[in-house]
Amino acid sequence: MRIVVLVKEVPDTYGARKLDLETGLALRDAGDKVLDEVGERALEVAISYAESAPGTEVVALTAGPESAANSVRKALAMGADRAVHVADDALAGADLTLTSQVLAAALADLSADLILAGNVSTDGSGGVIPAMIAERLGLANVTALDSVELAEGVLRGERAADGGRSKVEASLPVVASITEQLPDPRFASLKGIMAAKKKPYDTLSLASLGVDADALVPRSIMIAVAEHPPREAGVKVVDSGDAGHQLAEFLARKGLV
Description:
This protein has about 260 residues and is of the alpha/beta class. About 25% of the residues lie in helices and about 25% in strands. The strands form three sheets. The protein has a seven-stranded parallel sheet, sandwiched between helices. A three-stranded antiparallel sheet has the order 8-9-10, with no helix packed on it. It has a two-stranded antiparallel ribbon with strand order 2-3. The mean pLDDT is about 90.
């Protein structure tokens, strides 16, 4: 069985995150860069299953600049068997549609039984890449799972639904996305870090995937970008015996009551 986990290098959530006001693209060198946490949780699901199912291969797949290798190698240190990295200058500023096209091309060559991803990245927050890949590959797609169980060629899981929870099931191969409700990812041990240096790390270009870089045209265009306005001071209610009235009047002005 082969499980491919989509991973992504993103700006650290707790660090500085800025946009280039000319291009509208994220300035990825403005702060620290890390492996996206929800992607790490998907990786944890795959590695945990592989530990109990001999013969299972876990592959970490990413698309991004060559510098992202420093973050992606963490997936190998955590326990992935190998990594596949699509790195091409033509992908700079790729939108969701273009990204899904390239990842789907890489996945077509990997013949995965299960494709796992986080439900939404912490940088772009698009949340549609798994569904777009499933559409391109003609696979079923189960989304936003809070639990995952693999058995006998079937994936089962649960997800939040209006007023309760729903159970889902799909036959493999399938594309699935998970939420942050899944267990925390493991820490990479020193032994894992050393072993990662010897694991296969394949770097692919668009040409090697049979994708025509000249035909890659973003389907979405940034029409305006601006810095976030400075935060305004809030309303402070001082209790002089009428705090309740002040609060009620404030809520009424905001149309909240």
